[in-house]
Amino acid sequence: MLDYIEGDLIEVYERNFQKLGKRNADWKFILDVLLLFRPGIIRPRKPYQNLTPFGMYKSHFKIGWRTLLRNKEYAGINIAGLALSITCCILIFVLVKHHLSFDDFHQNKDRIYRVVTEQHRESVSYVNSVPSPLGMVLRENHTYGEKVARMFHDSNAVITFERNGEMQMIKEPDGFAFTESEFFDIFNLPLSKGNIKTALTEPNTAILTERLARKYFGEQNAIGQVITYDNQMSFIITGVLEDLPPTTDIKPEIFVSYSSLAEYNPWLASDDAWGGISSGMYCYTQLRRGVSAAEVEEALQPYVKQHRPESKNVHHYKLQALSDIHFDARYGGAMEKSDIGILIAIGIFLLLTACVNFVNLATAQALKRSKEVGVRKVLGSFRSQLFWQFIFETAIIATVSILIALVAAFAMVPYVNDFFNTQIPVNFLTDGSLVLFIIGLDILITLLAGCYPAFILTGFKPVAALKGKLSMQQLGGFNTRRSLIVVQFAISQVLIIGVIVIMNQMRYTKQAELGFDRESILMVKLGDDSLNTMHVLKNELLRLPGIEKVSVCYAAPASSDSWNNSIRFGNDSEEVSFRTNMKLADSDYISTFDLELLAGRNLTPSDTVREMVVNEAMLQSLGITSYEDALGQMIYANGGSMVGPIVGVVRNFHDRSMHAGISATLITTASTMYSNYAIKINGNSVKATLEEIQQLWEEQYPNKMFEYSFVDDEIAQFYTAEDTLLRGIQFFSFIAIFIGCLGLYGLISFMVSQKTKEVGVRKVMGGGIAHIIWLFGQEFVRLILIAFLIAAPIGWWFMSRWLQDFEFKIQLDLWTFTMAIGASLVIAAVTVGYQVIRAAVVNPAVSLKTE
After folding, report:
1. Separation CA 389–CA 395 (nearest Å)
2. 3-state secondary structure (DSSP) of residue 231
3. Of the candidates 621, 618, 611, the residue with the CA atom closest to the CA atom of residue 589
4. φ and ψ at 118, to 5 degrees?
5. What does residue 831 show for φ and ψ, rounded to 5 degrees?
6. Per-residue DSSP letter, 766
7. Nearest Cα to 277, choosing from 331, 215, 203?
C-alpha cells in the first residue's frame, strides 16, 4: 500500500471521517485508513523514492499550489504582507547602494582625500574648506601628495550666453568652479571634446558638461563658444566633459581656469590669504602610495602658527577620505552613516514583521493541516519529505511575493527619486548585485518563515493527528504565537515612537521663537555694488504700498551664509577665544527683523564701520553681567580693520539651526559687504508686491537676473535631511503597521472560527456582547502591554541618541510613550474589531450548530 502516497488524501479522509472516528484501537484505526486507499478511490502514483529530483520538485510544486488555491485567504494575506515588505526592502537596498556608491568610480579612490579644517575656539567647529594658499603649500613644500588641486566653488551662478543670435540668461544652482588642471588627474572625469591637459591652462577658459553644452548651444559645437558669469567675467569653452555620474558629490558642471580667480576675487587668489576661510575653497590631494593621512596632518600644523600667530582660532587641517565625504554631515555631507543604518534597520524590521505574520498564520492553520499530515505519514511519507513539501509551499509564496514586489518597486522608483532627491536608474534590475540580493532574499524568507511551521506540522503523531487529539503545544502553541505577536507590536511601537519624536522635534524647530521676525520677509540679491544705486533702489522700494520696511545687509539673522571672525575687546591685547558671527547691515536691520533692543540704542546710519550692537551671548562669552557695563566698550574685529564702540545690546536670536547653539554676534554697518535687500512685506498682498518689486528691480538692473527667497524658506532648508528622514520613517512605519494588521486580521479570523461554539455557549449562559468582545480583546491588550515594555526602552535609547544632534530639543516625556501605546491599541482594535463584533452578535443557535 505504500505505493499510494499521492493524491487528494484529505478529501478521502474527510469522506470517511465518521467511519474512522469510531475505531478505538490504534492498530485497527491505522489499518482501516490503509484499507480505504484501494484501487478506484485514488489514482496510484510512483513513490517518492522512485521519483527523479525534477519529478519530486514538480510534485511539491503541484501539491503546494493546490493547497494555496484551497486556502486563498491564508495565501492572500501572506503574499500581500511579504510583497509589501519585499518592495520596501528592494527600494531600501537600491537607495543604500546608491549612497554607498558615491565617488567610488575614481581610479585611485583609496588615496584621494579632501583637506578640511577643524576650528578650535571655546568649542570645535568643522569646515569643509581651507585657506586658499594651503593647496599651493602642500604641492610645493611637500612630497606627500602625488597630485594636489584647488577648486573654488561658487553656487547659484547666473550664466549668460548667445544662442541663435539671442542672448539668454540662466541660473545654475550648482554654480561653477575655478579649478586647477590637476583636479582632472585626481578625479576620473573624462572629456568628450578637447584636451584635458591644456583645456584650463589659459586664463578665462572653461569646460562644461555635455548636458549644459546641449542646454546652452543645442546641436552647435560648444568649443569656442563664450559664456559670461554674472555679466562680469567671460570664458571661452575649450572642452566638453562627459556628463557627471549621479553618484558624485562633485556638483558644479562648469569648470573655469583657476588663474582667473585673481580677477574674480584678488584676496582669495592671493598666496597670503591665510587670515580666513572662504566657503567653497576646496583642496584635494591624491597621496603617494605608503603615505598616511596622519603624516600629512602633522606636516601641515606648523603653518597655523606661522601664518596666524596671534589668532585664538586655532586651525587643525585634517584629511577627509573620499569615501567619507558623502556621509559626514559635519563637513556638509549629504547624509550621516547613521541614516543608512536606520534605513537598513527599517528594512530588517519590515521583513521580520512579514515573516512573523507567516509563522503565526501557518501555525494557526496547523489544525487544518494535521489530518493531511497524519494520512501522509500513515501512507509512508518520511518527516523529511513532508518538511521539504511545506518549505516548498513557503518558497512558492515567497517567489510570488517577490515577483509582485519587483513590479511595485519598479513603478515606485520615480517617486523614491523625488522623495529622497536621488537619481536611481529605473532599469535597476540590470544590477547584478540586486539580482543576487533578491535571490538571497527569496532563500532567506523561505527559510526564516518556513522552517518553524514546517517543523511543527511534520512533528504530529499520525494517530493523534487523525483522531484530532492534538494539544495546542503540538499545534505551535499559543505561547509561540504570543511571542511573535509581541515582536510585531514591539517593532511597530518603536517605529511609532520614532515618528512621534521626530514630528515633535520638527514642529519645535519650525514653531520655536527664534528671537526675530521671519514672516513675510523677502531676501533679494543685490544687483550692483554701487552705493548710490543701492540707496536709490531702497528708497524706491519703500515707496511701494505693500512694503513695510527695507534693510540692506549681508544675510538674515539666521542664515547658512555667515562670516565668522575673531575680535579683540576693550584694552585686551589678545583676541578672544570664542567664535563671533558678524552681521553686516544698515541701521534699519534691527527694526526690519524686529530684534529686541535690551539696552543702549540702534546703530546710526553709516556706510562704514562706526558702531556696534552685540547680543547677550557676546556679553556672556566676555564675562560681562551688566548691559550698561558693556556700552561704550571698544571692539576690534577683522584684524583691527573694523573698530567701533558697543552702543546697544539685543536679545539673543538663533543665528543658525537648532543643531547649534546661539553664537556671540555683533551687528555693524559695512556697505561694501552687503549682499541682499531684506524686505518686510505686508502679508495681505505678497503676490502683488512681489511682482512690483521685480518690475522695479528689473528697471534698475536690466541685465541682471532677479533672485529672491523668503527667510522662512531658507530656515526650513536647515532641516531638509530631518524632513526627508521623517517622511521616510512615516512611510515605512505605515507599511510595517499595515503588514502587522494583515497578520492580526488573519489570526483573529482563526481564533473566531476556533471559538465559535464557545461564544455560542457563553451567550446562552447569559454573556453579553461586551463580554464576548473582551474575551478576544483581553489577549491582545495583554500582548500590546508586554510589547510596550520592550519597545519603550529601545525607542527611548534610539531617539535620545538622535536628539543629541540638536542643541535645542524637546524632552522625551511620558506623553510621547502614552501616544505610542494608545496608537497601538487603536490600531489593534480597528484591525480585529469587525471580526470580533461579528462573532459577538451572531445568533447563538447558529454558533452551536457549527462543526
Report:
1. 10
2. coil
3. 611
4. -100, 120
5. -70, -45
6. T
7. 331
Alpha-carbon distance of 57 to 117, in angstroms, equals 63
CA angle, 237 then 241 then 245, to 5°: 145
d(CA 60, CA 813): 54
Assess contact for 241 and 207: CB atoms under 8 A.
yes
Which residues are bridge partners to 169 per DSSP? 160
* 296 sits in which H/E element: helix 293-300
Which has the closest alpha carbon to 151: 126, 121, 184, 125?
Answer: 184
Helices (H), 106-242: 133-141, 183-186, 210-217
Strand partners, 208: 240, 254
Kindly state the DSSP code that residue 275 receives in the 8-state scheme: S
- pLDDT digits over 690-747, tens only? 999 999 988 888 878 888 899 998 888 888 878 887 887 788 778 878 877 777 776 7
- The residue type of 579 is R
Nearest to 297 by CA among 280, 319, 313, 315: 319
Neighbours of 417 (CB within 10 A): 17
Instruction: Tell me the residue type at 435.
Output: V
- Confidence band of 225 (pLDDT split at 50, 70, 90): very high
Q: Which residues are bridge partners to 643 per DSSP?
A: 636
Distance CA 610, CA 555 (A): 19
CA separation for the pair 659, 508 (Å, rounded):
12
The answer to whether the CB of 558 falls within 8 A of the CB of 717 is no
- pLDDT tens figures, 556-585: 999 888 888 888 898 887 888 888 899 999
Helix or strand or coil: residue 550? strand
